[in-house]
């Protein structure tokens, strides 16, 4: 999953898929709606300590891991 996290000096301003290929959308239909939930919570809370809906726990954990890696890269730039 290719994710982009945009940060300013002290704030996370964006969390989104860089690109979500159509086949991934078909095979993983929870990716997009779960990302919307996570991105909204991350932008509101300004951290990755967000609640993942129980029915999307595995998908949420996969996305949070990818978001964490993207955030590390964004901060190190």
Describe it for me?
It is a single chain. Helices cover 53% and strands 18% of the residues. It has 77 residues and is α+β, with helices and mostly antiparallel strands. It has a two-stranded antiparallel sheet with strand order 1-2. A hairpin with a 4-residue loop joins strand 1 and strand 2. Helix 2 (31-45) packs across helix 3 (57-76).
What is the topology?
Elements: E1 2-7, E2 12-19, H1 22-27, H2 31-45, H3 57-76
Helix pairs in contact: 2-3
Unreliable runs: none
Helix content: 40-55%
- Topology as H/E string? EEHHH
Give the DSSP E fraction (strand runs of 2 or more residues).
15-25%
Distance between the termini: 20 Å
Cα-atom Rg, whole angstroms? 12 Å
State the secondary-structure class.
alpha+beta
The largest sheet, given as strand count, sense and whether it forms a barrel, is:
2 strands, antiparallel
Q: What is the strand tally? A: 2
Q: Taking all residues together, what is the mean pLDDT?
A: 94
Characteristic key phrases:
single chain, 77 residues, alpha+beta, two-stranded antiparallel sheet, 3 helices, 53% helix, globular
A few lines on this structure:
The protein contains 3 helices and 2 strands.
